[in-house]
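Entry type: protein chain
Record version: 2
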Amino acid sequence: MAIKDLRGTRFLVTGAASGIGRALALAAVREGADLILTDLQQHGLDSVVDAVRAGGGTVLHSAAFDISDYDAVTAFAHAVHERCESVDIVANVAGVSVWGTVDRLEHKHWKLMVDVNLMGPIHVIENFVPPMIAAGRGGHLVNVSSAAGLLALPWHSAYSASKFGLRGVSEVLRFDLKRDGIGVSLVVPGAVATPLVDTVDIIGVDRDAPAVRKLTGRFVKHAASPEKVAECILAGIRKNRFMVYTSFDTRFGFWWARKFAPPYNLVMQGANDYFRKVLRSGSAK
């Protein structure tokens, strides 16, 4: 069941200190949501919390920590659940990016992408979605992937490993959580004008080289604003939409890979319904 009205909902946003996370938090509070916020950067997080409260909005809880740290996420969840039985909306926005060709990427780069962009959201899902199920009120899960989670973009192998992984998690949960009234949205932004654009680490490449500056300039020129992405996410929640696009080019590119989507959706829903029955049958013995 789609959440048409955000008033009074408990809305969790990771990566809330800047970029898409900040824009989403501010957009959600304008529609009456009560916020639970986290980010790695304490100063930026405090700035968002102050802005929300200055505008008369509510922040139920906030804390700065690394979402790749399972124990830190668990402690945060315990603190949140001491205040409320469960949240209503979980938005996994936090992420980092490293680009590079496979001969230049090091193990630490691959591990960082998977730890933060994939295991981070999984840690959040582990701690917050089961209480949502137990509460029986439905809700919504938002996972911010990327166009690099759909398409084979140059230099993106490590980043895509994490974003394709998050897409896979989301595809399964889309069907698995439907019976619990919890919608799932997979957000697949293309270029977005966030601080990440200026800080992304391109391994073995001089960012100040003319050719690279020209390339990143084109990227920024076609980038959507964080505010536009936030509005797309909220629209996706209200319409209970699985795929949330923020640009036409990503939508068009993925169309080629998924033009047989309707029968795929039917088969996957049927398979998930069957596996749920098997699970319940096995649990009853």
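Comment: The radius of gyration is 19 Å.
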